[in-house]
## 1
Amino acid sequence: MMMDERMIAFIQSMDKGNSLFLTELEQEALQEGVPIIRPDVQSLLRFLLALTKPRNILEVGTAVGFSAILIAENTAADCRITTIEKYEKRIPQARKNFAASGYEDRITFLEGDAADILPGLDEGCDLIFMDAAKGQYPHFLLQVKRLLAEGGLLISDNVFQEGEILESRFAVERRNRTIHSRMREYLFSLTHDEELETVILPVGDGVTLSVKREH
């Protein structure tokens, strides 16, 4: 059964929520039209952080820093977080939020295109959170797999494209067809890659969880 809005609202009503700082940051972001991870994805992310206890995390797509701060709040003090953002308008906002959160010393903020930055990073990430431009997911995958440690978890957000992923390419607006094709390509790559074990979850706007197999 596909969950309707009443079921989603009921589940969200049981959620313990975030810190006051994150709650206020979320409200501010929504008022300004800044995309941040949805409440049910926040809950899933907190659960996965508690389960996996990562020590080295990479986030591709910072926006205003909401999810990086959520990760910092829900991981151990020795956990290091690296996050990448190329949209110049968001960079000063994220830096301001990191400083105000008190987690600035645990977050390494890299400015620029992930396509240029990822090849220069060292491998060994326990967890990677992919929440960048959806059309770029397939282009990042090779480097992301290299960086992900064996047994590590790759989380990819917004893979359903507001439901458009279910439609035929020709039923999607022309301007969205490239992203539609690339996201289908990405999902196929994840689910058919022998190095990964992937599940697609109907949470938020679609989330994939991919574990890198141990050799």
## 2
Amino acid sequence: MSASEITKQAIIHSTKKLASEKPFQKISVLEIARHCGINRNTFYYYFTDKYDVVQCIFDQEISPVLQPHFQNGGLADSVSALCNHMKNEKALYVRLLEDNGHHCLRDLLVQYYTDFLIHKAQQHFEQHQMPDQHQEIAARFYAHGTVGMIGDWASRGMKIDSTLATGLIALSAQEKFFV
């Protein structure tokens, strides 16, 4: 691994460590830099801000967990895989999901699930000749609900079996409970 990659990974590791210990919104770039033994300018060489680090964590750690479900899985399988992954670093993900900053983890998950749901419902959308803008609105509605439930699950200590919760979400959609 190159020195550049080592520094980048040190920044990511420090960000994760600090976010596991205190609310993400209270962590500064200077604190992250000091934690991994670099100066602020070095941090900014690699990342634009602390949310750029969250994007990198998403790309390196969360996206590989979700991607297999994009083509072949359902929403419940995807959420279950994500929740199981989050349990491995519970303190980190609870704190990252609490944060509502610009480009926070919630935003990244909402965008992922919006794309996921548009992809999964493409045939249905085409059959009903739904305009792209309407597809986006419908998918974002369900994506926000899905990510909101993940956030609730995390904030309550990740105690509920995620398979049960996702199964109930899938059942409510299938049975049209709220339509």
## 3
Amino acid sequence: MTLEETLNELLVKLFKDILEIESKCLITEEFKDISCNDMHIIEAVGIEEPRNMKTVASLMSVTTGTLTKAMDALCDKGYVLRERSTKDKRVIRLRLTDKGKSAYYHHEQFHRQMIKNISDEMSEKEQEVLVFALAKLVDYFQLNYYDTSEESEFVDWSKIKDEK
């Protein structure tokens, strides 16, 4: 098998496995009424200050129109609250309920455990190489498949290469 075939096979398997395993781990009995996509919306709403629809839609790389239907369902299920801004009544802020925060922390724990399990099996040098390779992959998708004026936080390769 060539290097290109091996990389392709590994990437395809990785993407498939991440989606499948994340779904199995996240959608427990407690959270059976939502999807993995809903979990990612909950993550985008966050636990800090309330966020507006535009910010959450941007984090999810969707339009506010697309987000609205999912947000309606999350509000109906008791994960998210919509609050009107007191300064500008046109602005709607999103905030997680206690149930939403519970889902947020559940999702966060999955990711922490995944990173811990991966990094525990690697040397510091292997971790650096993995970060470098994944950053290049992120940049490839950002620069080639997203219609965005924002640059990836990883795009300055000179800094990374100079550190090596």
## 4
Amino acid sequence: MRHKHVIVIDKILHILEIIIAILTLIVLIGMLGWEVYKMITVPEYITTIDQFLHTILTLVVGLEFVRMLIDLTPANTLEVLIVAISRQVILNHNDPLGNIACVLCIAGLFATRRFLIPKKEMKVEMSEVE
């Protein structure tokens, strides 16, 4: 049986996580809107595919992070890490050893998901697992 004050603190922290997730989502939507606005209104605003990919993939990682903040499960946490590392491989493709390390990290995350975390705990909130 958990003490009453621990339950209250846990609920307050969960509410703060949701507030941070909402603020992050608002900033991400603003970033996307600003990029689209610049592309439409500024004639000399020419973006390269690398800059565009950087912006879009940053937004994707940010959205995955928001989802993780709202629902903190092992599955969501591993997905955020996989997306973030994949973004690193796609955008920084100038170092072969770094790419190999990133691919090995992704393989390790998939192996962790497959072999180390029981299926029944994958969708359970991390704070609920004891």
